[in-house]
Write a structure and sequence with these properties.
By secondary structure, this protein is an alpha/beta fold. It is built from 25 helices and 27 strands. The protein has four domains: about 60 residues, N-terminal domain of TfIIb, CATH 2.20.25.90; about 230 residues, Rossmann fold (3-Layer(aba) Sandwich); about 190 residues, Dimethylsulfoxide Reductase, domain 2, CATH 3.40.228; about 120 residues, Barwin-like endoglucanases (Beta Barrel), CATH 2.40.40.20. It has a six-stranded mixed beta sheet, with helices on one face. It has a six-stranded mixed beta sheet with strand order 23-25-24-27-22-26. A five-stranded parallel beta sheet has the order 10-9-8-12-13, sandwiched between helices. Strand 24 and strand 25 form a beta hairpin. The longest helix is centred in the first third of the chain and has 19 residues. It binds ligand MGD (2 copies), iron/sulfur cluster and molybdenum atom.
């Protein structure tokens, strides 16, 4: 038999959705073994390159730490003491406990919890909504990453649609605004380089001098602008002030395609660059120059992803940003506009109702926002005015103890004796350690699926290369097994993967997708999403004023509200906790909370640290490598100091993704972070976190 190759697609929650090719040795004693995994050169957007994390994906697949069998807890919660059980025993324990919780507390006391750990269609949307809807469980709002951006832009443009990022190639001025492209979206960089070769200038706007900021070339007119976190809206208002004041608007386009220009002018009249400078810390002349450059470049493009969403004013950031290209008429020009996630082109090809099947759901259960998990698990009413507390917690595709803010409260919640917890995972994560039952999950090379990219227009097929490792199963198979264990008979709960794929994609020919490997989402041939000037609002215009926002109690016009947990917010908090903490993605070998536990990934990145400016360090008597204590009212953690020139005084950073075992005192970055929700859109403000720092004793 020998070896053969199978093409697949990376499943990580990453905009790039790279194509890969797996070489499988069929002659191995233990059955087919994947011996090589490499980038697929034919893949249209990733062109053969993967990344430092996934180049070693097989280390993950064949890690000795992979969970291979169901486990039942035998020690205290969190101690990580388990015994191996059969699937039948595990399912029996789960069904018995779910039925007990439903009898004692009602079905809303069951909380499903997941995100995009595997963002492929079946893994993320497959059968979970059918199962939990049929059971009548509380419904989960999954909005820790992305939905706020779309909901915010929709208030201005009526849609989350924007530029295909590949269109940046046609732009003459690219603003990388709150996105760390070289780290988080590396396969877009060649496009940006092509634009630069044509003469495009680059502006990077970030509170951190990131690796992306380091890539600018000031001799070519590139710039790095470093606002304080959570203050960009003030800078945007000042940019609009300058554009209006200096007569730089595209008058004809504004008259034909916008609503509320006069009111917007009134709203920005007082927002001089000097006033904004006092809020955001960017010199007034830099703001003025940025506004002029932006307005003088008809096809200026703004590239943004998720970074700015994670603030108390995170929705207003994107709502306000969307007004900028409307003032300059950038959408009329190829390469001009805003490029964000393209999920509204790609993922919208999925008929989610076909997957969720609301017709087989029971009742109309409440919704719970995933980002409030700490509050939900520690409250007698799940953080709601009324209703049962959570007594059963079923988690897959997500590692909330590391990835969700206010995580010390999550830990306290998961320790509750009257909470029954199930975790379906590839590894014994911090979250899994608190489970009563742990179930083993497959990796991407062990199950067929379809990956809808949010960083390019390409949707790609993933063919399983090897059978499931050990007794692991895919997410859809998990829910079929749970439905059977619960004694349900509704046939839709048992649909196989092939049926789900065929039924959920009304506009995609599955056979052609399989044969070709990928398919591109429909997008205008001339590259301009709003080339005809028609927007998706009720009036067809760009809403510089928004009655819809007024309807949900938000300002009609773009308005800067300083985050409460920030320099312009609560004065008592600010006095006690004078430093702004960011906890960003930082390591090239990590993907969110994944890989920090693997021997060729985690150790190569060193370990967690507190990064700060030398002035903040000197004030506290801290030197490089000293152990610092970082704390606020939510938690405290000890971590070694790293002095750098990447930050403004007053801003500190702890890279995120490390687990409790990697931190000297077992506390992780998200134990410090803020779980206040964004003004609308359901996002969360973990990047508005104030802390104090001293030497650890
Ligand atoms: N290597 C690697 N790649 C990844 C990931 C990973 O963990 N590791 N995670 C993936 C995921 S899930 C996502 S969502 C994407 C996210 O991709 P990005 O949105 O590009 O990444 P973030 O690190 O969330 O945020 C980007 C930048 O926003 C900045 N920022 C924070 N607050 C503000 C602000 O108020 N104003 C401004 N101007 N900037 C601000 C941060 O300093 C950060 O450098 O990356 C994906 N790619
Ligand atoms: N402080 C701070 N917090 C953040 C962020 C930040 O920048 N800073 N970023 C936020 C963002 S943008 C995001 S997207 C979230 C990400 O938060 P999470 O979704 O929790 O992060 P991941 O580490 O990507 O994935 C979670 C788990 O899914 C598991 N998994 C992978 N594939 C499968 C599968 O097929 N089945 C099952 N059952 N499990 C699988 C992995 O083993 C992994 O442990 O974190 C958010 N939290
Ligand atoms: S994690 Fe992102 S960059 Fe790395 S292989 Fe997967 S899709 Fe590509
Ligand atoms: Mo994300």
């Amino acid at each position: 038999m020998g070896t053969r190759t199978i093409d697949g697609t990376c499943h990580h929650d990453c905009p790039d959705s790279c194509g890969w090719t797996v070489t499988v040795d069929d002659d191995a004693d233990a059955g087919p073994v994947a011996v090589k995994l490499r980038g697929n050169p034919a893949h249209p957007s990733s062109a053969g390159e993967l990344c430092p994390k996934v180049n070693r994906f097989l280390d993950r697949v064949y890690s000795p730490d992979r969970l291979q069998h169901p486990l039942r807890r035998v020690g205290p919660k969190g101690a990580g003491e388990f015994e191996r059980v059969s699937w039948d025993e595990a399912l029996d324990v789960i069904a018995t406990n779910l039925r007990r919780v439903i009898d004692e507390h009602g079905a809303e006391a069951v909380m499903p919890f997941s995100d995009a750990g595997n963002q492929s269609m079946l893994a993320m949307l497959g059968l979970s909504d059918r199962f939990f809807g049929h059971l009548g469980a509380s419904r989960l709002i999954r909005a820790i990453c992305g939905p706020t951006v779309g909901a915010a832009m929709a208030m201005t443009n009526g849609t989350g649609r924007g530029l295909d990022p590949a269109e940046l190639e046609h732009s003459d001025l690219i603003l990388l605004w709150a996105t760390n492209t070289k780290l988080t979206n590396r396969h877009l960089w060649p496009t940006i380089e092509r634009a630069r070769q044509r003469g495009a200038r680059l502006v990077v706007i970030d509170p951190i001098r990131t690796v992306t900021a380091d890539a600018i070339d000031t001799t070519r007119g590139d710039r790095f602008i470093q606002p304080l976190p959570g203050t960009d809206v003030s800078m945007m208002l000042a940019m609009m002030h300058v554009i209006v004041r200096d007569g730089l608007t595209a008058d004809e386009w504004v008259a034909a395609h916008t609503l509320g220009y006069g009111e917007l002018c009134d709203a920005v009249a007082d927002w001089t660059p000097e006033r904004a400078s006092a809020e955001c810390g960017v010199p007034a002349d830099v703001i003025t120059q940025l506004a002029r450059d932006y307005a003088a470049t008809p096809n200026a493009a703004i590239r943004t992803l998720i970074g700015a969403e994670h603030h108390e004013n995170g929705a207003m950031f994107f709502r306000t940003m969307a007004c900028l290209p409307a003032l300059t008429g950038a959408w009329a020009h190829r390469g001009g506009g805003i490029a964000k996630s393209v999920g509204s082109y790609t993922e919208s090809q999925i008929d989610e109702d076909v997957l969720a099947r609301p017709d087989i759901h029971r009742g109309a259960p409440r919704t719970l926002n995933m980002s409030r998990l700490g509050d939900i698990l520690t409250s007698p009413t799940a953080g709601e005015p009324t209703g049962p507390g959570i007594h059963a917690f079923v988690n897959w595709n997500c590692n909330p103890l590391v990835t969700v803010p206010n995580a010390d409260a999550i830990r306290r919640g998961l320790t509750r004796d009257d909470l029954f917890t199930v975790v379906h995972e590839q590894f014994m994560t911090d979250t899994a350690r608190y489970a009563d039952v742990v179930l083993p999950a497959t990796t991407q090379i062990e199950a067929d699926d379809i990956v809808f990219s949010w960083g390019s227009l390409w949707t790609a097929y993933n063919t399983a290369a090897i059978p499931p490792i050990g007794e692991s199963c895919s997410n859809t198979e998990l829910f079929r097994r749970l439905a059977r264990a619960m004694g349900y008979t509704e046939p839709a709960l048992f649909d196989d993967d092939e049926t789900l794929m065929r039924d959920a994609l009304p506009t995609i020919d599955l056979d052609a997708l399989r044969a070709d490997g990928w398919v591109r989402a429909p997008y205008p041939d001339d590259g301009r999403p709003f080339g005809d000037g028609n927007f998706d609002t009720p009036t067809g215009r760009v809403h510089l004023v928004s009655d819809e926002l007024a309807g949900i109690g938000q300002p009609r016009v773009p308005t800067y509200v300083a985050p409460n947990e920030g320099p312009g917010g609560d004065t008592d908090l600010r006095r006690r906790f004078p430093l702004q903490l960011l906890t960003p993605k930082h390591h090239t070998r990590f993907l969110n909370s994944g890989y920090s536990d693997l021997p060729k990934h985690g150790p190569a990145e060193g370990g967690p640290f507190l990064e700060l400016d030398e002035r903040d360090a000197a004030e506290r008597g801290l030197t490089d490598g000293a152990l610092a204590r970082v704390w606020n009212d939510r938690a405290s953690l000890d971590v070694p100091v790293k002095i750098s020139g990447r930050l403004r005084p007053g801003v500190v950073v702890i890279p995120w993704g490390w687990w409790t075992a990697h931190h000297p005192d077992g506390n992780v970055a998200n134990m410090l972070t803020n779980d206040t929700l964004t003004e609308w859109g359901g996002g969360v403000a973990f990047s508005d976190t104030l802390v104090q720092v001293t030497a650890a004793t």
